[in-house]
Amino acid sequence: MNTTFDKGSKNFLPAVVFTSALGLLAILFSPSLVSLARFALQNDLYSYVLIIPAVSLYLIFIQRMRPAGVTGNSRGVGVMLCAIGAMALSGYGLAASSDIAFSMQDSIAITTFSFVALVAGVCGLLLDTGRFRRIVFPLAFLAFMAPLPIAVETGLEHFLQHGSAPPTSFLFHLAGMPVFQHDLVFELPGISIQIAPECSGIRSTLVLFMASLIAGHLFLRSPWKRSILAAVVVPLALARNGFRIFTIGELCVHVGPHMIDSDIHHKGGSIFFALSLAPFFLVLFLLVRSERAPKRITP
Question: What whole-number distance in Å separates Cα of residue 83 and Cα of residue 85?
């Protein structure tokens, strides 16, 4: 009876320490987390931020019964992650105190990244290696809580804008549409269309990329096949965006220029995102099937 009590006490104490450490972090970062929530509620691009913690918790929950496989501790990794989080936060504090101006988005990105790194570091310090390895992906996925720094967001928008132009041009020529292209501007009969930053499809691309990471983690074993699934998001995003611009251009020419202000332009992103899921799931199906296919033994 005493042995059972002692065993329960040994399991109870680390759980209390672990929960207390995470709770303390949440309290210390509560102003930053509140700012993050307000920012996400006011920004359509980063509205997905609010569901990231729930997704990570769900991934941890469904993997809780997986065998640990290894024993030991991950304190070295924990110390490194805590150091990264502390250095990011310290660097931000020193820069801010030196009158270096940060945008709200950049400030939230840095503080949120620091919080996630420290949470992962606490997990590494206080969990054994087996348990820590089981939750490495959910912890890494928490990084999507942080909005992209403005410079990164602008660069990604620029890439998607210019990358969408070739498939758009190809579709117009394939359909026999008279078109004159100058960089991101397409001169069509009766109307000119420009691929603006708002038309880059960055939000759909980020959501599909996150979906590819989750799907690869859940359904694929091979790291390189997971990489293929994530990488295929880029051509899918460019093709999807090109098809969307092509569709709007065709409607403007054949129905009327007023279609540039129609719902299919301003609110039709979800439709084209749904269409891009078909080839995405096809690639996922083929990759899963390739892993389950029996290996041939050559004589």
Answer: 5
Structural tokens at position 39: 């920012």
Whether 77 contacts 131, CB under 8 Å: no
pTM summary value: 0.87
- Residue 38, number of CB atoms within 10 A of its CB: 12
The structure tokens 């949470």 sit at 119
C-beta of residue 82 within 8 angstroms of C-beta of residue 125: yes
227-273 tens-digit pLDDT: 999 999 999 999 999 999 999 888 888 888 888 887 777 777 788 88
Query: What CA–CA distance (Å, rounded) separates 196 from 240?
Result: 15
Beta-carbon contacts of 219 under 8 Å, excluding residues fewer than 6 positions away, are 284, 288
Q: CA-to-CA distance for 149 and 123, rounded, in angstroms?
A: 26
Please give the Cα distance from 81 to 69 (Å, whole number). Answer: 23
What does the alpha-carbon distance between residue 163 and residue 234 come to, in Å, rounded to a whole number? 9
